[in-house]
Design a protein that fits this description.
Order of helices and strands of chain A: HHHHHHHHHHH
Oligomer: heterodimer
CATH architecture of the domain at 32-133 in chain B: 2-Layer Sandwich
Distance between the termini of chain A: 40 Å
CATH class of the domain at 32-133 in chain B: Alpha Beta
Largest interface: A-B, 11 and 14 residues
Radius of gyration of chain A: 20 Å
Strand order of the largest sheet of chain B: 2-3-5
Order of helices and strands of chain B: HEHEEHEEHH
Structural class of chain B: alpha+beta
Number of strands of chain A: 0
Number of domains of chain A: 1
Structural class of chain A: mainly alpha
Number of helices of chain A: 11
Largest sheet of chain A: none
Helix content of chain A: 55-70%
Radius of gyration of chain B: 25 Å
Number of helices of chain B: 5
Distance between the termini of chain B: 97 Å
Shape of chain B: elongated
Strand content of chain B: 5-15%
Number of strands of chain B: 5
Chain lengths: ~325, ~170
């Protein structure tokens, strides 16, 4: 009984924390972008503009929630929900601190890879159901981009799996007690982070959205809270990738003095800031450049990383 | 690859730069005295209206936002019966100020004229007229003009000699 209550508290707590991150990021991203562009960003609503997400929420709920008559209605409505559901499902397998995890799955990493593949459906379906040329182009780009980056996202993680000998995120973090995997797996980290950028279609890899080319890409036809759902899904996605990068490469909750959960959140927020910094500094590549980077650079790199790690583990044991 | 990292580093260093934003309502921008803002109608030092309703400003106005009608008082002084500026059309080019022969219409360093209704952006003469002489203190058009009006005959203006009587032969 006690165990059930404890598990329920963890589930509710994780959802509460995870769902409060997108509003915080709405504010944080705008403030950080402004900081790096020598501006102030939203600083009027509440102290430091902290109530800006609330004002945005009220505004977006007051908007007309319009479904175009030419759209495929059920799919159109379902698509924004898919991205949120799959991303939230992935959070279930992350171990935030010793004992704080929704599901201690022994195939946690595989579960995450599966869920992130499912997330691609959201965007492809949104682009298809909108029945709009620009949306379809965005959806097509998303399909190609997410499928090709999915390939070496998985391969780049295999080095970590080899070193720790498990797909379980808790075991992987425990294996980093001595040395964080960001040092032996620097190649894997670079490839995984790039793939993560492409998976969450964040800038500079926001080709499915590409405001300057495709109006708003796959969500051109979306308005009101359905558009908001895509936004929340995107922020959840970058939070997920940040949390996973912390768990896989930056030693999870390990760190001196502070409690484990604080270390985990701190590292996650630093990585979120890196996501925003990349958005502030890098231009969007052309579509063929994106594909060339994926197949000609990142895939070979991840394979080299896999081979090297395998050879070293075989030779020296681990 | 190296250039990408350099770019990211350069952008990161911007965190320590001074921010360019002017926090407007608290922090006022500097407006130079010749700023072309809200248009006013001025009076001469004696308190009379400077505008002589010559229509030059409304003629020169590129967006036709000035409307007025001329009339005369009992002394023969021309003045506008109404004077109307539609500020929702005005582009603040300042041509009216340049065209004005009596320094009556002037542009001021004030831009805070936003309003909730379009109609309230149409300013009538009582909204435009101020009590002072504006940028040209001491200038009084009728005091220097050769025109005869009530209370001032020909040749009585400042720096003006009495008119020559062309019908006499005396030197």
């Amino acid at each position: 009984m006690n165990e059930v209550v404890r598990q329920l508290i963890i589930v509710v707590g994780v959802i509460a924390v995870v769902m409060s991150i997108p509003p915080a990021l709405i504010w944080g991203e705008r403030r950080l972008l402004a900081l790096w562009q020598d501006r102030y960003g939203p600083n009027r609503v509440g102290p430091f503009g902290l109530l800006q997400p609330l004002a945005d929420m009220i505004k977006i709920f007051a908007k007309e929630d319009w479904i175009p008559p030419f759209a495929d209605k059920p799919v159109f409505v379902l698509a924004p929900a898919v991205v949120i559901v799959t991303t939230l499902m992935s959070f279930a397998v992350i171990t935030f601190a010793p004992g704080i995890a929704v599901a201690d799955l022994n195939v946690g990493l595989l579960f995450f890879l599966a869920m992130s593949s499912m997330g691609a459906y959201s965007i492809v379906l949104a682009g298809w159901a909108s029945n709009n040329k620009y949306s379809l182009l965005g959806g097509l780009r998303a399909a190609a981009q997410m499928l090709s980056y999915e390939v070496f996202m998985g391969i780049s993680l295999m080095g970590v799996v080899m070193l720790s000998g498990s797909f379980d995120l808790r075991v992987i973090v425990e294996a980093q007690r001595g040395l964080w995997f960001c040092f032996p797996q620097i190649l894997g980290l670079a490839v995984f982070f790039t793939a993560g950028l492409a998976e969450t279609h964040r800038l500079p890899f926001d080709l499915p959205e590409a405001e300057s080319e495709l109006v708003a890409g796959y969500h051109s036809e979306y308005s009101g809270m359905k558009f908001g759902m895509f936004f929340v899904g995107e922020y959840l996605g970058i939070t997920l990738i940040s949390a996973l990068t912390v768990a896989l490469f930056f030693g999870g909750w390990h760190g001196p003095w502070l409690p484990p959960i604080v270390w985990f959140l701190l590292k996650t927020f630093i990585l979120l800031a890196v996501f925003i910094l990349l958005r502030a500094s890098l231009p969007r590549p052309r579509y063929d450049q994106l594909m060339a980077l994926g197949w000609k650079v990142m895939l070979p790199l991840s394979l080299v990383n896999l081979l090297l790690t395998g050879a070293i583990v075989l030779r020296f044991g681990c | 690859m190296l250039s990408i990292l350099k770019t990211i580093w350069a952008v990161l260093l911007h965190a320590f730069r001074r921010r360019e934003t002017v926090q407007y309502p608290e922090q006022r921008p500097y407006l130079p005295p010749r700023w072309r803002g809200r248009i006013i109608l001025t009076r001469d030092p004696d308190g009379g209206e400077r505008c002589v309703a010559c229509h030059l400003c409304s003629a020169v106005c590129p967006v036709d936002c000035i409307a007025l009608q001329a009339t005369e008082d009992e002394h023969g002084r021309r003045y506008p019966e109404f004077f109307r500026i539609n500020f929702s059309r005005c582009i603040f080019c300042g041509y009216c100020e340049e065209a004005c022969p009596t320094c009556a219409i002037q542009l001021t360093p004030d831009f805070e004229m936003s309003d909730y209704r379009r109609e309230s952006l149409v300013y009538e003469k009582e909204d435009l007229l101020i009590s002072g002489p504006g940028k040209y203190p001491g200038y009084n058009f009728y005091k220097v003009a050769g025109l005869a009006i009530g209370g001032k005959g020909k040749g009585e203006a400042q720096n003006e000699e009495p008119p020559i009587d062309v019908k006499t032969l005396l030197p």
